[in-house]
Amino acid sequence: MDILLNCACHLTQRLQRSFVNYEETTMYSLETCPSPWLRTHSVWGRYVVSFLLIVTQLGFCSVYFMFLADNLQQIMEEAHFTSNVCQPRQSLVMTSILDTRFYMLTILPFLILLVLIQNPQVLSIFSTLATITTLSSLALIFEYLIQTPHHSNLPLVANWKTFLLFFGTAIFTFEGVGMVLPLKSQMKSPQQFPAVLYLGMSFVIFLYICLGTLGYMKFGTDTQASITLNLPICWLYQSVKLMYSVGIFFTYALQFHVPAEIIVPYVVSRVSENWALFVDLTVRTALVCLTCFSAVLIPRLDLVISLVGSVSSSALAIIIPPLLEIATFYSENISCATIVKDIMISILGLLGCVLGTYQALYEMTQQTHFYTANSTRVHI
C-alpha cells in the first residue's frame, strides 16, 4: 500500500494532476517504463487492474452473502430454544432445517435496495453504522474468548496445504487496497495519509492476530470459517451475531461501490440519456444477483475467501505495486537494492497466487468436505 501511494504521488507531481487512481497509476507507470512494448500497450495495464478490482470487490460481496446467510441461519434456527443461559456450542448437535442458500435468496432483495442508494452522504452514514456495530461485536467476542478456558496441547504449525489456504485468507484482508488512493484524495490533509495508513493497518493487524490466536486457543480444530459461528447459544451472543451481520450488511454497499463505479458509467455511456437511469439500476441489480448466485454455487465461506485472496487480492496487493515502483522510478536511477526487493516481493506474491489458487480449487472439488465449514451444529 505504501509503495502504491509513493508511485501515485510521484506521478501526480510529474503529470501535474490532482489525483490518479489505481488504474491510472498503472497506465502512467507503464508509459514511462524502459520496455517499448509495455509503453505501447500501457492502456492494457489499466484494463487489467480494473478487471482485478471488479473481480476482487465482487468476490468480497459474495463472501458477505455467505457470512450473512450463515449467521442468519443460526439466529433463526436457534431462536426457539435460545435463553439467557449460555450453552457451549461444541457439545450441541443438530441438522439444519433450511439450507444456507435459502437465506442467501432471502437477503438478496434487501441488498438490491441497498445498492440502489448512490448518495455519498448516505453511504458515509452506512459506513459509520457498520463501524459501530462491528467494533461493538468485536468487543463482546474478545470478552468471551478471554474469560473462558482454552484448549491445551494444540499444534503450533499446520501442514503445507493449510498454509496455502492461509495465504489466500491473509491476503483477502487487504480488501481495502483498491480504496487507498480514493481515501487519500478525500482527506483534508493528504500528506498525513501515510501516517494514518500505518496506524490503521497496525491496529487492524493487531486485532487479526489477537482474534485469530484467541479463537484458535478457545475452539481448536472446531473453529469455523467465521468466529461468530462458534459463539455459545444465548441471547447475548445471538445479538452479537446480529450486530456483526448488520455491520457486514452496510459494508456490502461500500465494497460494491468500487465495481459499480467502474462498470455502470461504462455501460450507461453507451445508451441514450432517456435510458440512462433504467440501465444504471438494471446493471446494479444484475451485479448484486451475480454475487448472490456465485455464493449459492460455492457456499464454502473459507474456500471462497482463500480463492478470492489468492487470485485477485494477491495481484493487487503484492504483485503489481512493486512492479509499478520499478516502472515508475526506473528512469530516475532507482537503486539495485530496491529493484531486488520489489522483484522478490512480486515473486512471493506470484507463488502464493498460483499455489493458493490451486489448493482452493482442489478443496472445492472434494465433495465429501463440501459443507464442513458451513454446517450448523446445534442440539436442543
Automatic annotation (TrEMBL):
GO cellular component assignments: vacuolar membrane
Domain Amino acid transporter transmembrane: 6-360
An example molecular function term from Gene Ontology annotations: glycine transmembrane transporter activity
Residues passing through the membrane, by range: 47-67, 100-117, 122-142, 162-183, 195-215, 275-298, 304-331, 343-361
Organism: Mus caroli
Keyword Transmembrane set for record: yes
Keyword Membrane set for record: yes
Lineage per the UniProt record: Eukaryota, Metazoa, Chordata, Craniata, Vertebrata
PANTHER family from the UniProt entry: AMINO ACID TRANSPORTER, PROTON-COUPLED AMINO ACID TRANSPORTER 3
InterPro entries in the record: AA_transpt_TM (IPR013057)
Protein name as it appears in the record: Proton-coupled amino acid transporter 3 isoform X3
Main location: membrane
Subcellular location: Membrane
Domain of life from the UniProt record: Eukaryota
Its membrane topology: Multi-pass membrane protein
Gene: Slc36a3
Keywords: Membrane, Transmembrane, Transmembrane helix
